[in-house]
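Anyone up for a design puzzle?
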């Protein structure tokens, strides 16, 4: 039997750092959600109006709520940017019943957030230091894939940089748990869920898939929209995450930067099939179709 994939020491150390960083970020997000819950308990609906409760406007309003000196109208005037256009709604959302218990709980959550953010700074510096020391070239190559960016360190930490350990991109996909499971009965293939694999890698690839779905005029965005109609959002995100994983394998295997295919790649690839499909539909509606190339 072949031995399991055991990453070298440098990868293991980087993995410890990136996973701990992820845990800290999750803790910070949880504490922010608890602050929103306390505000809701005080009948203050800030999160219903502001898209980011802890944005520039949200932080200033929370600070004034903690002091308790300003009225709702005055706090609404602290809003910035697009939130200023909803000043009247914001004023109504800030009319609540904030008492000493709410202020104590919010202060406890804010103190925890501040502590976690202080821990993040040296952690990020240490991650970047290890990247620059051991994986600078691979890091820069992975950054060329649009959704990845600065999160390339997570990809390196989870699957390493030596793609010789995975004979093909399909082996990497199977190891990570991003390929469909085998669900066959009576000789018929049925839809199968993804297999067990590296849960940290799977979650970051799903995040990359969500980011890619919003990056207009890119191949990955067009791929997402070609799937979401018939597969649904979740399956489409997994499929795009799988595409990104395959891209990572090729980039690291051949030490070549990612080449953007463009949003029209899928249509050009399936051009004849798309044309035949539309001609058939129009013929079914009783139309005779004559094709002519546009100038």
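Challenge accepted. My sequence:
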């Amino acid at each position: 039997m072949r031995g399991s994939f055991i990453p070298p020491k440098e990868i293991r150390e980087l993995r410890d750092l990136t996973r701990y960083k992820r845990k800290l970020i999750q803790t910070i997000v949880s504490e922010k959600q608890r602050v929103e819950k306390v505000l809701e308990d005080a009948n203050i609906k800030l999160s219903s109006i502001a898209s980011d409760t802890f944005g520039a406007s949200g932080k200033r309003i929370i600070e004034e709520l903690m002091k308790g000196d300003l009225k709702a109208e005055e706090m609404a005037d602290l809003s910035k940017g697009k939130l200023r256009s909803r000043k009247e709604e914001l004023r109504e959302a800030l009319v609540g019943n904030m008492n000493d218990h709410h202020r104590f709980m919010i202060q406890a959550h804010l103190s925890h957030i501040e502590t976690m953010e202080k821990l993040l700074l040296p952690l990020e510096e240490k991650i970047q230091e290890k990247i620059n020391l051991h994986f600078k070239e691979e890091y820069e190559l992975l950054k060329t894939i649009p959704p990845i960016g600065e999160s390339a360190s997570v990809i390196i930490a989870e699957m390493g940089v030596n793609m010789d350990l995975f004979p093909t991109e399909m082996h990497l996909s199977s190891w990570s748990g991003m390929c469909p499971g085998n669900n066959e009965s009576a000789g018929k293939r049925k839809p199968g869920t993804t297999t067990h694999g590296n849960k940290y890698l799977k979650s970051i690839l799903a995040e990359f898939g969500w980011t890619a779905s919003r990056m207009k005029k890119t191949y990955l965005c067009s791929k997402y929209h070609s799937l979401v109609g018939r597969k649904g959002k979740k399956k489409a995100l997994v499929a795009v995450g799988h595409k990104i994983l395959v891209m990572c394998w090729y980039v690291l295997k051949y030490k070549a930067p990612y080449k953007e295919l463009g949003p029209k790649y899928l249509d050009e690839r399936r051009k004849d099939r798309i044309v035949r499909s539309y001609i058939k539909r129009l013929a079914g509606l009783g139309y005779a179709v004559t094709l002519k190339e546009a100038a």
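A detail worth pointing out: The chain has two domains: 9-133, 136-269.
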